[in-house]
Records
---
Amino acid sequence: MRIKKPKNTDKSDNQLLNQFQETGNIDLLGVLFERYMHLVYGVCLKYLKNRDDAQDCVIEVYEKLGKELLSKQVDNFKPWLYVVSKNQCLMRLRSQQARLKQERAYKKNEQALMELNPFVHPDYNTWEPEEMDERLEDCLNKLREHQRACVELFYYKELCYQTISEQLNIDIKKVKSYIQNGKRNLKICIEAHNE
């Protein structure tokens, strides 16, 4: 009994690549990619250090090849594929780090809001919500213009320092200072209402 050899496996990388670019036949790309899938998986596992993430990244690399190879001139497929795989891993890591940074910033903002929010302080529990809103609004209006703008953008719009800095066209260090001082002044103002 003879084992049937899959079509196109006897062709070189360049032949398969050229045929894929001419025809757009995804099966040709599949044959080519299958030859180096273990390499791609190894690269992804090395960078991502997690099997599930590595497997997801292999799929992302394959999908990327389908788009990029139709218009790119690639002379040596294997080294090119290695670089594409490595870059995909680095992009994924950057994205994960950005997401973690954003989550940490959100938690920090949430904690700061809890400190700022008078509802969490027992002294203010006797205030009605409408009264609290009015007093908070009144205290916000008493802040200096830049303090008020920074506090509102940071706590209510949940923007980061960099975005606030760009929107208000002020230095990022000043943004931090305005938020810190604004928060302190709000607390003092709200406490004064309670006396």
Note: The helical segments are 13-23, 26-48, 51-68, 77-116, 129-142, 145-156, 161-168, 172-194.
---
Amino acid sequence: MTTSDPVLRPSRATPLLPEAGAAGTPLTVVIAVLAFMASIALAGYFMVSRAVHDWTGDLSGTITVQIKGATGADIERDATRAFEVLQATDGIAGVSRLSREDTEALLEPWLGTDNLGPEIPIPMLITAEVTPERRGDLDILRQTLASRAPGASLDDHSLWNDRLVGAARRGQAVAFVVFSMVMGASAAVIIFATRAGLAANREIVEVMHLVGATNKFIADEVQRRYLTLGLRGGGIGALLAAVILFLSASFNREQQGLFLPNLSADPLMLFWLILVPILLCGVASITARLTVMRVLGEQM
């Protein structure tokens, strides 16, 4: 008999432990759903981090001066003086003064159109870019504005920044907890599926032991299968999440608002979703191996 005889060729087309129950297609679907949830949680973590970083960066580089007054003449006088003070201050650039028409346009969502008559003294806004050095010392500028333009008040957006950063950190913590819980649920599902698979194939496992198969060999076979299932299900779930996030990002670019950060996904962030099937492969294979070794150890 030659070495080319098909009888002597090892065949691995059929696994030693056939797929049964939770170890087949249903488990792939469950892993895909868990991968989808983990991908959304991971994407949410990065989306919140990037959006808040961009928005707080924009706010920290600008200041706003609001001018109030009893009459339109008082507002116009103080606005002119505040504008001159800002232009003459070192570390202040890009001073911009909103006209009454621009201010009315900002108030239209709340007050409607043509509801502000000329006799109503609408506060005026002046925006300016500020350097980090000047931003660290705005007390002198506030005092100068108070003396030259009593109706002017300076806002450096620090309170809003602090609230936004605090809310973002809480959102990131929630996303991380959800991601960790999904990974823990994945491990629990794999433990149940592995035990169910060993129970369904108990006779095969006993025969393998009779012919000399060790617990390590059986664990290797189970680990290899769950590695494949984790990669398959994790890839499907992560891909579905990437598609949904991409479509959501396209929609958000069209519907981007003026008062909220842009919570959208970019291609670089979607690249991190590759971590999800990789982590699920690791969780599935390692959990399955440890479960097999423990169950077989208890039976021996």
Note: The two ends are 39 Å apart (CA to CA).
